[in-house]
């Protein structure tokens, strides 16, 4: 069983028409700043983690981001 949050970034991006892999960077995929803001909001609702946009931008890859999110504290 996957840790909570694992794969959610990829799933959310796929639902928006992107073709991401764990090795991709969000900006390299062509996401706009508004799409990144929406992704942060969607992740909060999907996995119960308050995701700051700086975390999304600082992660070197989607895989690294998902690893960070799987260990993050959940919001009530």
From TrEMBL:
<protein>
    <recommendedName>
        <fullName>Carrier domain-containing protein</fullName>
    </recommendedName>
</protein>
<dbReference type="InterPro" id="IPR009081">
    <property type="entry name" value="PP-bd_ACP"/>
</dbReference>
<feature type="domain" description="Carrier">
    <location>
        <begin position="1"/>
        <end position="73"/>
    </location>
</feature>
<dbReference type="InterPro" id="IPR036736">
    <property type="entry name" value="ACP-like_sf"/>
</dbReference>
<dbReference type="Pfam" id="PF00550">
    <property type="entry name" value="PP-binding"/>
</dbReference>
């Amino acid at each position: 069983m996957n840790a909570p949050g694992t794969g959610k970034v990829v799933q959310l991006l796929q639902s928006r028409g992107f073709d991401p892999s764990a090795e991709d960077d969000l900006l390299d995929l062509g996401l706009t700043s508004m799409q990144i803001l929406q992704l942060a909001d969607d992740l909060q609702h999907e996995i119960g983690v308050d995701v700051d946009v700086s975390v999304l931008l600082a992660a070197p890859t989607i895989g690294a981001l998902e690893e960070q999110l799987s260990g993050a504290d959940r919001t009530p």
